[in-house]
Amino acid sequence: MGTRLKVLVWAAAAFAIAALCCTGPAAAVGVPVLRVCADPDNMPFSNDKGEGFENKLAELVADRLGRELVYTWFPENTGYVPNTTGSNACDLVMGYAQGTGLIEDTNPYYFASYVLITRGEDADLEGVTSLADPRLTSKRIGLVARTPPASILAMHGLIANAKPFDDRSGESPADVAREMIAAIESGELDAGLLWGPIGGYYASQSSVPLTVAPLVRESVGPATFYGITLGVRPNEPQFKHRVNKVLAENRTEITAILQDYDVPVLDREGQLAAAAGTPPAGR
Fold it and tell me: Which domain holds residue 241?
């Protein structure tokens, strides 16, 4: 995704995974492989050094399935959906939006939304959680072109003062996020709109206190709130069931991984999830 609702902007064409570069240690004799498609340079999601939260999730799933993790590196900006059929296909595609219909998917392992990022000291925008809020009128708002929030801003007549950023201009989503956040820090922008995982991660690295507000209350325009799943091979219900079981049984650990990267993790109702390991209220 420009700011990263990844597969929603991938084209539906697939291509032979055998033509791509696969890396990772060779599987031990007799140990089955879990072939995972991931981006080699897309922090905080994944990179070829294994530093992203999707790398950590892939390691967890491979361990619980008793498989050797092997990556097929797949830069998202190629514009294709990874192939999930055939002997050399991906077993899992990381970070796949639920319900797109391009690849079969698992149950969601977390929910995320686009976010509105503002300076913590800006009392004028304190508590803004929707792009319909009249306090955004005349504000300078950064947005990534061709993303759902851009359409919603247009519907509310807020485009005139907006500053578009284009992640198809050669900059990576991380570069765009850092540039937008720097403009918020300096006061060039009053606010910015980014995909939640990338916005939360880079906002947390700011030298200026920033507020990250999930956008889950939009009443017009495209969806801004999604369940995030793993893309799986089609027509393998037993494998899909096993992966779903791993996701369900390790939900607390998965949430902790995401929160370690400052991802604003939401529940099904769009509320911020409690910190992993926090006991329910009243206990």
Answer: 6-110+226-260
66 and 99 assigned to the same domain: yes
pTM of the predicted structure, to 2 decimals: 0.85
Residues 116 and 73 in one domain: no
Residue 233 in domain: yes
Of 47, 125, 90, residue with least CA distance to 230 = 90
Query: Which position has the higher pLDDT, 101 or 66?
Result: 66
Grouping H, G, I as helix, E, B as strand and the rest as coil, residue 132 is coil
Whether pLDDT at 164 is above 60: yes
Residues 168 and 2: beta-carbon distance below 8 Å:
yes
The C-alpha atoms of residue 27 and residue 12 are separated, in whole angstroms, by 31
Q: What average pLDDT does this structure show over 220-233?
A: 92
Distance of CA 192 to the CA centre of its chain: 17
3-state helix, strand, coil in the chain (%, to 5): 30, 25, 45
Q: What's the half-sphere exposure (Cβ side, CA atoms, 13 Å) at 51?
A: 8
Whether residue 108 has a cis bond before it, omega within 30° of 0? no
Cβ burial of 151 (10 Å; 0-12, 13-18, 19+) is: middle
Q: Check whether residue 195 and residue 124 sit in a common domain.
A: yes
Q: Three-state DSSP class for 93?
A: strand
pLDDT of residue 53: 98
- Shared domain for 19 and 78, answered yes or no, is yes
CATH at 203: 3.40.190.10
